[in-house]
Design brief:
179 residues, Nuclear Transport Factor 2, Chain: A, alpha+beta
Length: 179
């Protein structure tokens, strides 16, 4: 991770948006979209911090090897989610509204996805050191949702239960993408 400037942060998000548009325009199956998105997701998302924050105190209880495996699983989940949600192009347009510094290499990029029917989705990306650790869509924090969802699974089924839950989510995305 490296220090980032307003311009580099804007470019990172613009590149991510261009990739999403390109994936939607591919008119490809889920596996092709997933394979195209995976390296981009691995570069622009901060899965280690997403993993740590979303699992709370349970993170510290795991050894480094399991933390690493979980982080790789988180990258796959993020790619699977985007491959599922960005599956077809219908003149959608991404627009960056602002790039705001939040101090010491932290940024918020406020953007909007406009659909062909005029409906908009606000997408606020929270970055540190140039990589995304949270996305807030229409005011709802993905990181907060993960943390709440994972807390109940961790309490009931432990870390292995959470891994099983995430693997099932990835399988479900893959199955829903099969025609």
């Amino acid at each position: 991770m490296h220090a980032s400037s307003q311009e580099s942060v804007r470019n990172n998000i613009n590149d991510f948006h261009a990739t999403l548009i390109g994936v939607m325009q591919m008119n490809a199956d889920y596996e092709h979209r997933f394979n195209r998105l995976s390296p981009v997701i691995n570069n622009i998302f901060d899965a280690p911090n997403i993993s740590r924050i979303s699992t709370g105190k349970f993170w510290r209880q795991q050894d480094a090897q399991l933390q690493g495996q979980f982080t790789e699983l988180m990258y796959k989940l993020i790619a699977a989610t985007y491959a599922d949600r960005f599956d077809s192009y219908n003149d959608q347009v991404f627009t960056i509204e602002s790039v705001e510094s939040k101090g010491k290499d932290r940024w918020v990029v406020k953007s909007r996805l406009t659909k062909s029917d005029g409906e908009t989705v606000t997408l606020d990306y929270y970055l540190r050191a140039g990589v995304i650790f949270n996305v807030v869509a229409n005011g709802v924090s993905d990181l907060s949702l993960k943390r709440a969802d994972y807390a109940s699974i961790l309490a009931a089924d432990g870390f292995s239960g959470l891994i099983e839950h995430i693997n099932k989510s990835i399988r479900d995305y893959r199955q829903s993408g099969v025609d």
